[in-house]
Design goal:
Strand 15 and strand 16 (182-183) form a beta hairpin. This protein is an all-beta fold. The chain has strands at 26-31, 34-36, 42-48, 57-60, 71-73, 75-78, 81-85, 95-102, 113-118, 122-127, 130-132, 138-144, 158-163, 166-175, 178-179, 182-183, 187-191, 198-205, 217-227, 238-244, 251-256, 259-267, 270-274, 286-291.
Length: 294
């Protein structure tokens, strides 16, 4: 409609701006439905009658549009989809808010979806701290504030192996173990992925999106070649093993066929071991095993 104005109660302006009426928006679902208390969770919200414009907002509160710090700018995708980022919120130990939407930054929906806040977890240790780059090693991640569920949702638990030296992060599904039916709040388990050798940051997430940043490291090792690759049957050949990801642990072992021997750590790129006498007359398979028993 055309908007006009009268300052004397009688004569209205002849030309004025346009005022648009719209069907009220509605919020149906959003993903993810949970995030850490420091905020910054990227949320996709589905509903109806969203309108692209400067007034498109999300409200993270129980129907209280008076606080500007809880009204977050939204990105418009379609009339049925928008996105926004959660603000910080105190969650001790858990809390939730309703997330509403507005097309004009003033009137908000009143049947929004619930968003759960949880205290941010952190990682303190990982056992073992090293594994072959071929993957499939079960590791235990220790930390604080691990959760299997929030107030309304199951958590989305993943382990991430990454860092500044690795442009593609590797992620695997994590499981929180139970004792007598009670989920742990400080232990999570996952299998390592197949990846390249090197030292990674190991982090976890509870919402499939935001990960810890505790600075705990995990190293994948791999062998490139050995030298010399042959020696007499009497043994005694000092074999240098070259590769990447070797770490100084309590137990380093080389294995010649089925015959294990102790290894010696030289550097991140080399270990050495001495070939044992060859007692079985068959083909020799040489491998290197590392065990971290700290």
């Amino acid at each position: 409609v055309t908007f006009s104005f009268a300052n004397n109660g009688q004569q209205y302006t002849s030309e004025g701006p346009r005022f648009f009426y719209y069907d009220p928006p509605a919020v149906h679902t959003m993903y993810p439905g949970l995030g850490p208390d420091y905020g910054d969770t990227f949320i996709t919200m589905d509903g109806t009658n969203f309108i692209e414009g400067p007034g498109l907002r999300c409200l993270f509160d129980d129907w209280d549009p008076t606080r500007p710090d809880l009204k977050m700018a939204s990105a418009f995708y379609w009339p049925w989809r928008l996105s926004c980022t959660s603000p910080p919120h105190v969650a001790d130990p858990l809390d939730y808010v309703f997330v509403e939407a507005s097309n004009n930054d003033q009137q908000f929906t009143r049947e929004g979806a619930m968003f759960d806040y949880y205290p941010a977890p952190n990682v303190t240790a990982v056992v073992p701290s090293t594994a072959p780059k071929r993957g499939n090693t079960l590791i235990t991640v220790a930390g604080l504030k691990f959760l299997e569920k929030t107030l309304h949702y199951d958590t989305i638990t993943l382990c991430r192996f990454g860092g500044p030296d690795f442009p593609v992060d590797e992620k695997t599904v994590a499981v929180i173990p139970r004792t007598d039916g009670i989920p742990s709040d400080n232990v999570m388990q996952c299998f390592t992925p197949e990846t390249e050798a090197g030292t990674f940051d190991i982090d976890i997430t509870l919402n499939g999106q935001q990960y810890t940043d505790g600075g705990v490291k995990f190293t994948f090792f791999g062998i490139d070649y050995i030298h010399p690759p042959l020696g007499p049957e009497s043994g005694g050949t000092v074999v240098s093993v070259y590769g990447k990801g070797f770490t100084l642990t309590d137990v380093i072992r080389c294995r010649f066929g089925t015959m294990p021997v102790d290894g010696v750590y030289i550097s991140f790129y080399e270990i050495q071991c001495t070939a044992p006498p060859y007692l079985v007359k068959d083909d020799i398979f040489r491998a290197v095993d590392f065990e971290d028993r700290k």
